[in-house]
Amino acid sequence: MFNPAKIRRIAVNTGGGDAPGLNAVIRAVTLAALERGWEVWGSRHGYRGLLDLTQLVPLTASEVRGITHLGGSILGTANKSDPFEYPTKTPEGAKLVDVSDQIVRNFRARELDALICIGGDGSLRIAHKFVEKGIPVVGVPKTIDNDLSGTVVTFGFDTAVTTATEAIDKLHSTAEAHERVMVVEVMGRYAGWIALNSGLSGTADIILIPEIPFDLAKVCEAVMQREAAGKHFAIVVAAEGARPAGGQMMTRGPKEAGREVLLGGIGQHIAGEIARLTGKETRHLVLGHLQRGGGPTTFDRLLGLRFGAAAVRALAEGKVNVMIALDPPTVKTIPLSQAIERMKAVPLDCDSILTARSLGVCLGD
Ligand code: F6P
């Protein structure tokens, strides 16, 4: 039975792809825990610090000073170090080895009372497996993709959308000057949140998301309708997971062991097809990791700080094996198992989809 009165020492880690706002969470976790008289240890690069204890570092007020506005993670992150399938060099070559029991032993040897895991679906899934091994966990929802269930939004998403919107804004003038079609591929994995929100805000003409498989004929029709109306350019925003009706998502290279397959290439493909089918000069652009880089927006800073402080409050109230979630105007906890149950896709009847349709944006269907 978890007894919050006995908490003396907690660990925190950041796992998966980085997202702007990670440092704000780390700062809030550290200061809120220190304020309660707890020690805080940072596990560098996901779980690496709990496997190799030289990578488990004490976090004090000075370590987290002046980091709220910084991108990246002062602890580093990892998306290829699942402890249940840990890439390990063995005499027989590289193998995936389950090192989770060693992590549990180290956790106990260091007399850690709980782990605050800042991560997306992959990292929180791993955290949930540690819950099953008896480690008390509070998850903090992080991902630019905004695809975690149970929270209205994850931190990092607003920054990614802002970056993508700024890029789309800039493409307008060059697209118009050259009378071209510009196709921008944005991240988001299997969900279209970044494409939809940045496409709407950046006034794209066509927005393609995984939730609505597209018909190329409809996409080209939208381009040609603009042409006929005297608008000789068009902006297409394509989520990396967008796919044609009846087709597959495009991937970059083969799936690496111990991690998700990487998506990408659909922007280039669509640009080629638009050029071929309409005769319009077309260029494509992949925004890529720019969307994860740089400092967090004010929204993400504040959300990160609120999430971090809420994670410590949850522990102090004895709430473990939960994830912090935004449910405006408050921040609440939900069972960790509920957060990882299913991916949060864009609902086809949501307000933003309806808005896009009302504004005459082509969604490819
Ligand atoms: O989950 C965040 C994310 O940026 C996705 O949008 C993208 O598909 C993936 O990570 C890229 O991963 P990597 O940083 O390994 O290229």
Write a short abstract of this structure.
The protein has helices at residues 22-35, 48-51, 100-109, 121-132, 157-178, 193-201, 216-228, 266-278, 298-316, 336-341, 351-358, and strands at 9-14, 39-43, 56-58, 86-90, 93-97, 114-119, 137-141, 181-186, 206-208, 234-239, 282-286, 322-327, 330-335. The protein has 365 residues and is an alpha/beta fold.
Explain the overall architecture.
- The chain has 365 residues and is of the alpha/beta class.
- It folds into two domains: 4-155 and 296-328, Rossmann fold (3-Layer(aba) Sandwich), CATH 3.40.50.450; 157-293 and 347-358, Rossmann fold.
- Helices cover 36% and strands 18% of the residues.
- The protein is built from eleven helices and 13 strands.
- The strands form three sheets. A seven-stranded mixed beta sheet has the order 3-2-1-6-7-12-13, with helices on both faces. It has a four-stranded parallel beta sheet with strand order 9-10-8-11, with helices on both faces.
- Strand 4 and strand 5 form a beta hairpin.
- The longest helix has 22 residues, at 157-178.
- The termini are far apart.
- The mean pLDDT is 96.
- Bound molecules: 6-O-phosphono-beta-D-fructofuranose.
Which features characterize this protein?
2 domains; alpha/beta; Rossmann fold; 36% helix; elongated; four-stranded parallel β-sheet; 18% strand; 13 strands
Write the layout of secondary structure elements.
Elements: E1 9-14, H1 22-35, E2 39-43, H2 48-51, E3 56-58, E4 86-90, E5 93-97, H3 100-109, E6 114-119, H4 121-132, E7 137-141, H5 157-178, E8 181-186, H6 193-201, E9 206-208, H7 216-228, E10 234-239, H8 266-278, E11 282-286, H9 298-316, E12 322-327, E13 330-335, H10 336-341, H11 351-358
Parallel strand pairs: 1-2, 1-6, 6-7, 7-12, 8-10, 8-11, 9-10
Antiparallel strand pairs: 2-3, 4-5, 12-13
Helix pairs in contact: 1-9, 5-6, 7-8
